[in-house]
Amino acid sequence: MQINQDELDVAPAPGESKMEQKRMETSEELLEALDKSAAGARSAFEKTTEEHLMTNWRLLARGQVVAEAPRYQMIQDTINHWAHHRGQMTVYLRLLGAKVPAIYGPSADDNQFR
After folding, report:
1. What secondary structure letter does DSSP report for 112?
2. What is the pTM of this model?
3. Total H helices, total E strands in the chain
4. Please, is 31 exposed, middle or buried when counting C-beta atoms within 10 Å of its C-beta (0-12, 13-18, 19+)?
5. Is 107 strand, coil or helix?
6. Which residues contact 112 (CB under 8 A, 6 or more apart)?
7. Domain residue ranges in the chain
């Protein structure tokens, strides 16, 4: 999206959202959506140029600019943001007594790597 579109409004006025939101009910649906999204991202990166990645991209809320920076920087910040939330998830899993999967490499709960 940050390559193919110029902005995203995370809090659009009612009826103005351009984002399709579909609830996934099964693991198969989730995996299919992930595969489709990953293929779209690969395609966007293959078709873009360094010059395009230097152009600005904007994050909006109700039409107001929240953040604006070169696309490459916004993409990097987004990936860092996802990593932060995966880290939070591992803390919540521990607090719930659940096993922590190997997200960044082996975890103390995953014997697969021993």
Report:
1. G
2. 0.74
3. 3, 3
4. exposed
5. coil
6. 102, 106
7. 7-16+24-104
